[in-house]
Design brief:
Length: 325
């Protein structure tokens, strides 16, 4: 709102009209003074001076709640304090032996060094006295600091222990407390035998049978795993007959596969030489072997039935003997 003109203007005009003692110039001077004083005291900005794009153009009432205080972020972290007192031996560092060892007294006194100083007020004597005082202060501060730290640690540990015990007692009391009367009266009608007990979960009536069945299942599973491992070990042992473990066996296998003249394909034998066996069998070829209505091009149906029967006999023999044949 625009500043108001002081009432001195009206009083000046009244005095000029009634008494005729004041002149026009004096009244104008009083008006200027009153206007300047009023403009210096007021803090409200006239609405005509606020542009429309300003957020203060429309007056919005402010809340009485104070604004949150901005706290600047302090960078860095404090180092973890060193553990001075150990749990097993807390009184060791406040004993007289330990304090005497870490803060030993000076071996020589000031009087013994007085013969090296000619004047008692010399600069060297003052420096030596100052160093002695600082050393005594450091020894005293270390001793008092260790004692105070031990007392503070004992007080903190005792407070934490009391707080922990109090919370545990409160938790136990709340867990074992009976049902309140207002809860009992406001709960829906439920038979007492169906309500959960405070002592824990409901007891399993078939617990022994269930545990017995679970033990049997575990034993059966362990037995199956042992048999499977034994079968794998026997299969590995049977297949180990064809393993190449010596250089002579490796040379023999290489000669038979690449240079053996008797391993070429002929009218009687298929041959084992890799240069004459042709392309390896595909997945479709392997699937056709197990199908009854499909026969290989180079074999008759009787040969196919014979091969399939031999494979089945081998499988039955392995199942009966319990291992690889």
């Amino acid at each position: 709102m625009p500043p108001r003109i002081n009432v001195s203007l009206s009083s000046c005009s009244r005095a000029r009209i009634q008494k005729g003692l004041s002149t026009t110039s004096s009244c104008l001077a009083q008006v200027r003074n009153a206007t300047s004083i009023t403009s210096t005291k007021t803090t409200t900005t006239p609405k005509g001076e606020i542009p429309p794009e300003s957020p203060k153009f429309i007056e919005i009432p402010q809340t009485r709640q104070p604004q949150s205080i901005y706290r600047p972020w302090v960078k860095g972290i404090l180092p973890v304090p060193r553990k001075i007192f150990h749990r097993n031996n807390m009184k060791h560092k406040i004993s007289q032996e330990y304090l005497s060892a870490v803060t030993p007294e000076p071996k020589y006194s000031r009087n013994e060094h007085a013969d090296f100083v000619a004047d008692s007020q010399s600069r060297a004597l003052n420096k030596y006295t100052w160093n002695s005082q600082q050393s005594a202060s450091r020894r005293r501060n270390l001793r008092e600091g260790l004692v105070e730290l031990q007392h503070r640690k004992h007080h903190i540990d005792r407070s934490l222990a009391e707080r922990r015990e109090r919370k545990m007692a409160e938790s136990l009391q709340l867990a074992t407390a009976p049902e309140r009367e207002d809860e009992r009266l406001t709960n829906p009608t439920v038979h007492t035998a169906l309500l959960p007990s405070r002592g824990g979960p409901l007891q399993d009536l078939n617990r022994e049978k269930r545990l017995k069945r679970m033990r049997a299942n575990v034993e059966t599973m362990q037995r199956r795993k042992a048999e499977q491992r034994r079968a794998w070990l026997h299969t590995l042992y049977m297949n180990a007959r064809d393993f190449i473990v010596r250089p002579a066996q490796l040379d023999e296998a290489v000669d038979r596969a690449f240079d053996g003249p008797n391993q070429f394909m002929s009218d009687e034998t298929q041959g084992e030489n890799v240069w004459h066996l042709g392309a390896p069998e595909t997945v479709q070829d392997l699937l056709r072997v197990s199908q009854r209505n499909s026969i290989k091009k180079n074999a008759t149906r009787a040969q196919w039935v014979k091969n399939l029967t031999e494979k089945r006999l081998d499988t039955i023999g392995e199942e009966l003997t319990g291992g690889k044949l």
